[in-house]
Amino acid sequence: MNTPFTRLASCLALAMALSCSSGGDTEDPPVVNNPQPNTQLDELTLPNGFSISYFAENVSNARSLARSDDGKVIFVGSREAGVTILVDDDLNGVAETRHSILGLNTPNGVAFHNGDLYVAEISRIVKFSDILNRLENPGNPEVIYDGFPTEEHHGWKFIGIGPDNKLYVPVGAPCNICLEDEQVFSTITRMDLDGSNFEIYAEGVRNSVGFDWHPETNDLWFTENGADGMGDNTPSCELNVAPEAGMHFGFPYWHSAGVADPTFGDRFPSSDFESPSFGFEPHSAPLGARFYLGDAFPANYRNNLIVAQHGSWNRTPAAGHTGYEVKLVELSGNQVSRSTTLVSGWLNTNTNQYWGRPVDVMELPDGSLLISDDYKNCVYRLSYTN
For the chain, how far is it from start to end, CA to CA, in angstroms? Predict the structure, then answer.
């Protein structure tokens, strides 16, 4: 839908202490504790039949994941440390060698397509052509698009290539809650692979850092981080579906299901916007979301979403943290039938301390699953043996 946008000079001061500062963000906390160096993987809780190991350790700020078609080369984006390239030539589930691409501006998003590596920086998309033959020296990239805003708040970007062979890139709100006159904020955009035909695909999306397309319907499903400063238990973080262009998902007027913004909520009824398909725990920060396509996991995983929850940071101690888990989200059509925990244990619920924060997930050709962790600085491999 087309919604009028009012020009405001800056983010508004909200009655409930909502902030436009860099701290107001469900997935970007200050460092409040350090990873425990002696933490063992056996502290993680898995369903029966699953096991977890390190695919690679000492991967600084491991964030979004992409891979070559054969699964031998894994690309790991980051917000702080460039792009790390992990190589598992013998496909034994452990990376033997690694390379780095430095000199990029917060290269959080990575996507591999037809031999080329696409990287999403804060204000542009670049491409490293024929990357598999140039791992040690990728050279200078080709700039595909350089028209994104330069704001750093929610400026890091995910990137994906859809079934329509187009690049999809979200542009987060440059604040916790605000109404911006630039329509590109709080959207998911798309463009051709060469950067042409740029358009806004979805509006009213506060900050999405993960999405994927349903393998049967080609509908776009995406996670969305809810706003901070409105209380420990509201609003929910979201899972949404956008089967077509032009849909508006409510931000900044409405948050999650039926939660009106205290400043902007009286401008439009909630019925003007798309309702969330599912509400995750408030402040749990769901990020990476991928459909599981293989048959190595139990049958109920196939064609359903696996979602990484980065975890909360500003809930009160009495309320305790939420997130720090990997979830299986099962679908029935365009409805969520249930959500269950696949991996947990990064958060010690007795002490409210965490030692890891999952960011993204990615299926390997053998049906096992990689999980990145930007706090433990590693990539895990989750496998299943009946």
Answer: 48
